[in-house]
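S1.2 Input.
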Amino acid sequence: MSKERKELQRARMFRYFLDAATDVIEEDGIEHMTIRKIADRAGFTASTAYNYFKDLSHLKFFAAMRFTSEYVKELPSYMDLGTNIVDKWLYSWECFCKHSFEEPEIYSVIFMDNLGSSPQQLFDDYYALHTHDLTGVPEELHAILIEYDFSKRSALYIQDAVTEGYIKKENVPLIADITLMVWKGMMNTYMNRRRGYSKEEAIKRTLELVAECVISVVEPERRSEITFRP
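S1.3 Output.
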C-alpha cells in the first residue's frame, strides 16, 4: 500500500472514530466517554481504536476540538467590536468565556486536563486533519488559534499592543499568564460548584478580573481609550 493511500485510510479511520465520539458526547456527555462505547458506535473493536489513538485522553481531545467550531466562527465578529488592540483582545476573552462556560467539560478537556502527551502536538495533528475549521477566519488569527498554550496565544496577540504603545513589553508575559490563571481558577470553581456561581455570573466575574488585570498594565495616558466593559 502506498504512503498516500495509507494516509488516506488513516484519515478515514480518524473520521469514523471522531464521528462516533461526537455522537457519544452529544448523547451521554464527554465525561461518560469510553473507548469501548466509541468503538462500538464506529463499528470496530476497542483494539482497533488504539491503533489510531494513544489512549482515551487522546481521543477525548480530538473529539472535544470539534465542539469549538462555534467559538472559532464567532471570534472575528467579537473582536470587530473593539476600536483598538486592547479592546479587541478583551472582546476575544468575552467570546472565549461565553463558549467555555457554556461547555465547561469540553474546554476543560482541551485546556486543563492531563493529556498524557504533548498538547501542542495534538493541536498540530488536529488542525492538519481539520484545516477547514479555520475557513473564513482572518489570516492574522490563524497563528493564534493553532497555538495550544493559551498564555502564548495572548502574548502573540498583544504584542501589537506593545508596538502601538498601550503596554510595555516586559508586562506581556505577566499579563498573559495572569489572565490564563484567572480563567482556569474560575473554571475550576464553576465546575466544582465552590461558590454557586451561575454560568452568567461566572462569565461576568471572569471578564471583570481579566479586564482589571489588563487595564492595570495599560499605560496611564492610554487607559481612557479602552471602552470594553464586562
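S1.4 Remarks. The mean pLDDT is 88.
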